[in-house]
Protein: Endonuclease 8
Organism: Candidatus Pantoea varia
Amino acid sequence: MPEGPEIRRVADKLEAAIVGQPLTEAWFAFPQLKTYEPSLIGEQVQAIETRGKALLTHFSNGLTLYSHNQLYGVWRIVKPDTELNTTRQLRVRLATAGNAILLYSASDIELLNADTLAVHPFLTRIGPDVLNSQLNVDEVKERLLSPRFRRRQFSGLLLDQAFLAGLGNYLRAEILWLAQLLPQHRAQDLSDDQLTAFSEALLSVPRHAYRMRGTMKKYHEEAAFQFEVFHRQGKECRRCGTVIEKGTLSSRPFYWCPGCQR
Ligand SMILES: [Zn+2]
């Protein structure tokens, strides 16, 4: 399943394709959404927000399309009036004069207004998004030490969207490696310096992945994103030279360096 950085990059591409142009077509597969179609023609998509793994497509008439791709949903960008040759089920089609964005296979799709958005069950349950630039290290540290999360092992905590939204399995492994921590720790057991380093890694790793994943070093000042432990079992740790190990943790594969993670 894609994690926050990959979902935000998809949202960036969708925004570039559709934002700020009058909609010429709005089509929804689900009968309960059909009644909204005419009211969206001539309106614009103003922004596509990501909240963890959910996408919020904000329209200029105040409505918001909520979609969560779960395991199967996928977005495509095409020229208007283009059909894709696919066996996937089309669920949403939004078009302007220049582009159309298509959502296939997702089943978790709703149209919300400001009131229903504010009380949406998924959105009210998830924690702050790691890619939200308003979120800072002090707030993450405070959240780690809160009564709700301070006794939770990092192995499960980092996969729980109620703690921080947008993290997933590769980020869990890479964050713990950067902070030099084993996943059995709980926030209440760490020193202040460890907590600070961990809080910094919880934000810096996903943000670096968002900016740099898939880019090549020669085109950028900043180093390209590379996995340090994820899918690197049997290889040497670039920090200490110890061989990276692989196991299972909270039912998901986990990768770590036994040499420098403590
Ligand atoms: Zn190491």
